[in-house]
Amino acid sequence: MCKVFLAFMNGKAPQTVLTDQNMCLKEAINLEMPTTKHALCIWLVVAKYPSWFNAVLGERYNEWKAEFNRLYNLESVEDFELGWRDMVNSFGLHTNRHIASLFALRSLWALPYLRSHFFAGMTTTGHSKSINAFIQRFLSAQSRLAHFVEQVAVTVDFKDQTGEQQTMQQNLQNICLKTGAPMEAHAATVLTPFAFSKLQEQLVLAAHYASFQMEDGFLVRHHTKLEGGRKVYWVPREGIVSCSCHQFEFSGILCRHALRVLSTGNCFQIPERYLPHRWRRISTPATKALQNTQSDHTERVQLLQSMVSTLVTESAKSRERLDIATENVSILLSRIREQPICSQGIRESSSNQR
């Protein structure tokens, strides 16, 4: 089956794949797609809870579910394994074969082991349930593949390109900006409504966090906390930012910690690499050209402001840097003043927006 799948994909294996607890399938994936990260769909695991643990735990069943969910969402592998041991002791599950099996397969379903891999958030129970419910509306054991694809197309209601462009413009107009930050306004023009809403949540939460510059990065923690926090690394020159919480790697959406550091560093646009193509609006070449015409000037000004801010910060660190910056900026400024001022493109953009 894996060989047939790879043949359909021109030999290109997926980055990640979610399956049920079929051990034969697990072995086949390891053999045929060794570079693919295999994980178990947590919804299929959770669906078996009642038959596995209801009778065993009795009145403590709901208490155990809450503790399992807490462990599942932990960030640290060490915390997970210590918590799992305490959970087994607390609920007397030392000899339970399902608990033993789950622990043996923990690297395939527990989030602490999966956060460094991209799953678009689909390993969470909420996403898995919604996807499963959507597919079950028109899929059964008797379904033909062609009929299944037709039913999905009808449900999604694909539109022609003109209608798609109008829908995109309408969605853009309906977006409500909550922070007033240039990064938010920029992301709103690039991301789909769903992806933007997720990023916007993080931008709003970022305002509640403080960032402290360290020798090798930044420490970011909630303003009410005196200890702990997340470690963020930012290389402005290369447009690279990463956080110890691994939210971007896992979901494709930057976390509040990284966004806080970008904001503190006067970054007015989210770096290109952190706006994945899968989360971007689908545009025709004509639509892209129109959007570029309308926003190019503002975006370039914001980018220049960010570069100038970084230039000042870096130059002020030593007398030698300051001398180099002053000399080169003077030369650059003289060259810029020699260039003729042409505002035709800006006027055209303004007239199009009216």
Question: Can you give me a brief rundown of this structure?
Answer:
It contains 18 helices and six strands. The protein has 354 residues and is an alpha+beta fold.
Using brief descriptors, characterize the structure shown:
single chain, 354 residues, alpha+beta, two-stranded parallel ribbon, 58% helix, globular
The side-by-side strand order for the widest beta sheet comes to 3-4-5-6
Helical residue percent? 55-70%
- Write down the overall mean pLDDT: 80
Beginning-to-end CA distance, first to last residue: 56 Å
Major sheet: size, sense and barrel closure?
4 strands, antiparallel
Number of strands: 6
Run of helices and strands: HEHEHHHHHHHHHHHEEEEHHHHH
Radius of gyration from the alpha-carbon trace, in angstroms: 25 Å
Broad shape: globular
GO biological process, one term: regulation of DNA-templated transcription
Function: Putative transcription activator involved in regulating light control of development.
Subcellular location: Nucleus
Protein name: Protein FAR1-RELATED SEQUENCE
